[in-house]
Amino acid sequence: MAWKSRKSGGAGSRSPVRRWAGGADEEAEKVPRGHVPMLAGGGEDGGERVLVPVRLLSDPCIAELLDMAAQRYGYCQPGVLRVPCDAGQFRRVVDGAMQRCGIIASA
């Protein structure tokens, strides 16, 4: 599975991260089957949109971040699910979970 970074536009990115500005065109962007869009980072730039494979939701690190998100934002947050950590840290968590689950992102 090849991941493309919207920020750099390069096809060689190994992380499933995309820049998220929250525009109407990007909200309409289709999410690939078997993935959940999440927003990490927040801040002024809107954070980074990460497409997380559904298989990773049972990973202990991802599950802990989901629990933290529920505590901070509640269960009724509109739009993309926000995760309470910076984008770089979330990329590392997702990459580690992908390795543990045997999902390899191709270059």
From TrEMBL:
Protein name as catalogued: Small auxin up regulated protein
Q: Where is this region: Disordered?
A: 1-42
List the Pfam families. Answer: Auxin_inducible
Assigned protein family: Belongs to the ARG7 family.
Which InterPro entries is this protein grouped with?
SAUR_fam
* Any GO BP annotation: response to auxin
